[in-house]
């Protein structure tokens, strides 16, 4: 059965020992509370009872080997950094990536064995242990997971998988830990390794980085790539099998859906651009670009993705708008590392005519220009995917990469002040003028 297959994500390994087990309280982060699916990232350590696959996990210590009752402030910041990157990789889907143990709320955290049973028994919950692995448990692997086990109840620990920090460059190797975590849970969601072929010959059983330092598939090996995304391509087991990662996640996990970010997807339904004074309110001017179809997801072509529309009015003058690719979980207003979206930014006038466009090789885009007074629309879209030939034409089999994920807007709009704000401004200006002419009186 496909659910009983096991995938190992390889690198190196070291041994550790522990006579006792202490579990600190992890900081609480959640990307989408109430989502249909839950991905619990366990940084607090875990004592697994019995065998798992062909090995015995035993004790995985907490992140950074913490043995106290709480993580330090720097450890909490590091955990947030890793969590934010994983949350972004699953942002197009109705998935809550969380560091909060669901077993606690369910009253099933009395022991590690009880928690282990709960993770198995609970459909749509996957438990990922992130910590240093022993040399005797898949000692050459960066991570390990069963396949197609997220959607339904499991047995024998299949609701748990591992990411081994000591084989990925250490606790501060945020990019590598995120890459392995997203990869292993791709397996849990039914995905296989993406493979590369020349003719009928496999040249990479794990797709590497497409001969590019910037792009790699999540289901390949993306440690050296700055950007890891979902892909449609051949799998490592047979050249004739093609997996569309996004469509496969939707098809093989009952109840899994793409996210509706609530942002207007046409000019007629455009969302008013949130402002604080003249500054764009980046905490509310945000969205997620996903596949336009949940039954026929396609990575290539801008029309195969949703768009986000925002409306605003200006009194005229210089206006600037930036679409920032990625989330802003770590520092509000600053794009998190490991963004997935390559965005295109357009400015439209009130009739829908194009005023300006920014579609560079950068993931984020900016438009800054003088505008006449009036109403305008911001259109945020996908760059339309990447069709990647892996080598000389006619030899390598090509693959297609998705351009979708989170974004938020920053910048400034020369807008009309709200009536109350405008009246207050007049009062302030009047008082300043009176003060300059010596006409201000004071009461005792």
Q: Would you write up a description of this structure?
A:
The protein is α+β, with helices and mostly antiparallel strands and 444 residues long. It has 2 domains: 2-190, Collagenase (Catalytic Domain) (3-Layer(aba) Sandwich), CATH 3.40.390; 271-412, Jelly Rolls, CATH 2.60.120.380. Helix content is 16%, strand content 28%. The protein contains 6 helices and 27 strands. The strands form 8 sheets. It has a 6-stranded mixed sheet with strand order 1-7-8-6-2-5. It has a 5-stranded mixed sheet with strand order 15-19-24-21-22, with no helix packed on it. α1 (73-89) crosses α4. The longest helix has 18 residues, at 419-436. It is globular. It starts with 5 loop residues before the first strand and ends in an 8-residue tail after the last helix. The model is unreliable at 10-20 and 420-444 (pLDDT under 50).
Keywords for this structure?
Jelly Rolls; disordered C terminus; 444 residues; alpha+beta; 5-stranded mixed beta sheet; 6 helices; single chain; 2 domains; Collagenase (Catalytic Domain); 27 strands
What layout of secondary structure does this protein have?
Blueprint: E1 6-10, E2 37-42, E3 46-48, E4 58-60, H1 73-89, E5 95-98, H2 102-105, H3 112-121, E6 125-131, E7 141-146, E8 160-164, H4 174-188, E9 196-198, E10 201-204, E11 216-217, E12 228-229, E13 231-234, E14 242-244, H5 245-252, E15 271-272, E16 275-276, E17 279-280, E18 286-289, E19 308-314, E20 317-325, E21 343-349, E22 354-358, E23 365-371, E24 374-382, E25 386-388, E26 399-401, E27 405-412, H6 419-436
Parallel strand pairs: 2-5, 2-6, 6-8, 11-12, 15-19
Antiparallel strand pairs: 1-7, 3-4, 7-8, 9-10, 13-14, 13-26, 16-17, 18-27, 19-24, 20-23, 20-27, 21-22, 21-24, 25-26
